[in-house]
Amino acid sequence: MATIRKRGTSQWEVQIRKRGYPPQSKTFKLRAAAEAWAREIEFQMDAGAFSCRKEADRTTFRDALQRYWDEVGSQKRYSKNEWGYISRWMKHPYSSRFLSNLRGADWAKYRDDRRAEGKAENTIRIELMVVSTIYNVARTEWGMESLGNPLDNIRKPSGAASRDRRLRPGEFELIRDALSQSTNRWAKPMFEFAIETALRQGMLFKLQWDWVDR
């Protein structure tokens, strides 16, 4: 059952002890808020639906970013790209807030602010995708089962704008001939290779021999 006691002149502490569940406690400025929280937690326990939020309540977004990088991101094939997004998030003001206190409205504001800065939709989409992945990993692997993913219910950026531009007759030859005059001896073969494989520039520059069937 719940016990509510006054602490100091302006705080109310709730303690809940129920068999089969870890003790729960929280402090409020108003007694009414303390009573409402106690009723909610006891109801969840009675219904068998309670899940402890302590881990999410004391884990900052920065802590989660670092743990995700150590356990997941650093093991990915293109970890350098992943670290670029993670390190940027670590410098953001949101990084000092607790995971459980960041709401969908916060991430929607971030999305809109980035749009106002002129950032591409696909860039914003990837930035938010990293955050969403961290919330999902925290819930499924870090013991934060009660932690919801606040990005699930916000409108996501659409990603890169669709393109249907194709080379017109004669354009391939014009570009190839122009690149033949380049002082960079790789310009022409890289152009031809890109046409044949449809690889993007970033992947072309990272290509390694052990990725190629010979």
In brief, what are we looking at here?
The protein is mainly α.
The main pleated sheet reads as: 3 strands, antiparallel
Mean pLDDT, to the nearest integer, reads: 88
Strand order of the largest sheet: 1-2-3
Which band does the percent of strand residues land in? 5-15%
**Structural class category:** mainly alpha
Number of helices: 9
Low-confidence stretches: none
Domain count:
3
Describe this protein with a few key phrases.
3 domains; 3-stranded antiparallel beta sheet; single chain; about 210 residues
Would you mind describing this structure in some detail?
This protein is mostly helical and 214 residues long. The chain folds into three domains: 49 residues; 85 residues; 41 residues, no CATH class. It is 49% helix and 8% strand. It has nine helices and three strands. Strands 1-2-3 form a three-stranded antiparallel β-sheet, covered by helices on one side. A hairpin with a 7-residue loop joins β2 and β3. α3 packs antiparallel against α4. The mean pLDDT is 88.
